[in-house]
Design brief:
- It contains 7 helices and 8 strands; from the N terminus they run H-E-H-E-H-E-E-H-E-H-E-H-E-H-E.
- It is α/β, with parallel strands linked by helices.
- Strands 3-4-2-5-1-6-7-8 form an 8-stranded mixed beta sheet, sandwiched between helices.
- The longest helix is centred in the first third of the chain and has 16 residues.
Length: 209
């Protein structure tokens, strides 16, 4: 891999020097999906994935969480608002937006990974999407225990770099696949609120023999 590909792939490929293992809480039986996307696409992709998850299981809302600053307030449906209140009763700060319940996790993986598993238990019956703006070794334990891993691509992404990133995710164990970030301002807005889903994954990662 040449130097250009190495720089482009650093967003999603695991760093060369692994971090110390992070303590985590054992995952409950729940549908938890981790989405990795560029920062500009993260809200739209995560919301669209959440929309696609809740419909097959009959859930009226879904949870999207990410490390970092709180989500902005938006108009929301009754189910999302009710779940946000239920989480607040368990000392989990949540914001309802559209058909989604959004939660801000701690920046530090050592704190946010247990928070994510606690959230899946508190939101029982509603799927949970963890949105990450790139690969960090501190989250690899969470990725390895998720139900699915999804890597978002956008127009102009280098296909070789994308293939390497997908293979790196697939090596963690859970099924890994590519999805395409929504395009167009209206579609991205609707997706970010969980009102528009994605199409089927574009490609499934395979671990070389």
């Amino acid at each position: 891999m040449n130097e250009l590909l190495a720089r482009a792939g650093s967003l999603f490929l695991a760093p060369a020097t692994p971090a110390a293992p992070t303590a985590s809480v054992a995952p409950p039986v729940a549908d938890l999906v981790v989405v990795l996307a560029a920062p500009r696409d993260l809200a739209a992709v995560a919301g669209a994935v959440a929309a696609g998850l809740r419909r097959p299981c009959g859930a009226r809302t879904a949870v999207v969480c990410r490390p970092g600053e709180p989500w902005p307030a938006c108009p929301a449906g009754m189910a999302a608002t009710a779940l946000a209140r239920r989480l607040a009763a368990r000392d989990i700060a949540a914001t309802a937006a559209g058909s989604l319940c959004r939660v801000a996790l701690a920046e530090d993986p050592e704190a946010s990974v247990p928070e994510a598993w606690r959230l899946t238990a508190a939101a029982a019956g509603s799927p949970v999407v963890v949105a990450l703006a790139g690969r960090h070794p501190g989250f690899d334990g969470l990725l390895a225990q998720a139900d699915r891993l999804l890597l978002a691509t956008a127009t102009g992404d280098d296909p070789d770099c994308t293939a390497l990133a997908l293979a790196s995710l697939a090596a963690l164990g859970p099924p890994a696949a590519l999805v395409t970030a929504p395009s167009g301002p209206m579609a991205r807005r609707a997706a970010a609120l969980g009102l528009l889903g994605l199409g089927p994954p574009a490609h499934t990662g395979e671990v070389p023999a």
